[in-house]
């Protein structure tokens, strides 16, 4: 089976709107009547969970898979050759040859067991990357929505609409427009933070992708080569020992 991984999580890119976002108000909408709760005006839809926090956590699938890689590579280096010693007759007599075979078998079993522990984690990493990518898309849509909303909100505060801001409905709330102005300033800060979040989404996903790729390389390239080399060297040493000291 090909263990290569895709550069993009399995999430549809066809989303053209976020159903959690309210309809974009027009300038007339903003001047028709006071907004009941200014704290909710332009707010980002809240997600059920924060996939970024899960991805970056100490016990996230990405962190666990990275720890598997940290265990695998030293193991492979430690058991790169079955032995550097020639199998002289006394080593065969004392059982050193059998010990070499057992060492290789144990190393292979340990490597395979450790590698297998990462297989389930890869599936969890892919699912988490898909959630993060979904959140990235929704954040990008929220950014687009804010970039359309803020110019309208700022226009309402301009001289052009000064008379309409004095309509009877607003006179009952003398501090409404100062609060509205502060809310617009806050939303500009929210917009900047959302843009930074998108970049962080991309960086976190790139890290997760690199961990996946390293695991795939070890499973599909490094381990098979290690087994082939170790098996061949062990077989060659056995043949050499038998040629030098044939059974009588």
List keywords for this structure.
248 residues; mainly alpha; 69% helix; rod-shaped; disordered N terminus
Note the main sheet.
none
Whole-number average pLDDT? 77
Point out poorly predicted stretches. Answer: 1-6, 11-15, 81-99, 234-245
- Rg calculated over all Cα atoms: 32 Å
Instruction: Please report the total strand number as a whole number.
Output: 0
Alpha-beta classification: mainly alpha
Helix content: 55-70%
The separation of the N and C termini measures 47 Å
* Portion in beta strands: under 5%
Query: What's the number of structural domains?
Result: 1
Question: Gist?
Answer:
By secondary structure, this protein is mainly alpha-helical. The chain has helices at 27-32, 51-56, 61-78, 89-94, 96-156, 168-171, 176-244.
Q: How is this structure best described in words?
A:
The protein is mostly helical and 248 residues long. It has one domain. It is built from seven helices and no strands. It has helices at 27-32, 51-56, 61-78, 89-94, 96-156, 168-171, 176-244. Helix 3 (61-78) packs antiparallel against helix 5, helix 3 runs parallel beside helix 7 and helix 5 (96-156) packs antiparallel against helix 7 (176-244). The chain is rod-shaped and about 85 Å long.
């Amino acid at each position: 089976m090909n263990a290569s991984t895709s550069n993009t999580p399995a999430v549809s890119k066809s989303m053209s709107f976020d159903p959690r976002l309210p309809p974009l108000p027009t300038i007339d909408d903003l001047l028709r009547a006071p907004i009941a709760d200014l704290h909710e005006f332009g707010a980002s839809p809240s997600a059920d969970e924060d996939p970024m926090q899960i991805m970056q956590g100490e016990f996230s699938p990405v962190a666990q898979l990275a720890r598997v890689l940290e265990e695998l590579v030293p193991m492979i280096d430690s058991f790169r050759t079955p032995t550097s010693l020639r199998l002289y007759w006394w080593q065969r007599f004392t059982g050193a040859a059998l010990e070499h075979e057992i060492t290789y078998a144990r190393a292979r079993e340990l490597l395979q067991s450790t590698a297998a522990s990462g297989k389930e984690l890869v599936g969890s990493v892919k699912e988490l990357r898909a959630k993060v990518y979904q959140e990235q898309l929704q954040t990008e849509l929220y950014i687009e929505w804010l970039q359309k909303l803020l110019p309208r909100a700022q226009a309402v505060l301009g001289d052009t609409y000064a008379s309409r801001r004095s309509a009877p409905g607003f006179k009952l709330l003398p501090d409404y427009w100062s609060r509205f102005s502060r809310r617009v300033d806050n939303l500009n800060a929210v917009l900047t933070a959302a843009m930074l979040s998108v970049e962080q989404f991309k960086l976190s996903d790139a890290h997760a992708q690199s961990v996946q790729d390293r695991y795939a390389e070890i499973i599909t390239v490094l381990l098979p080569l290690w087994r082939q080399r170790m098996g061949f060297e062990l077989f060659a040493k056995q043949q050499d020992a038998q040629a030098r000291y044939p059974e009588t």
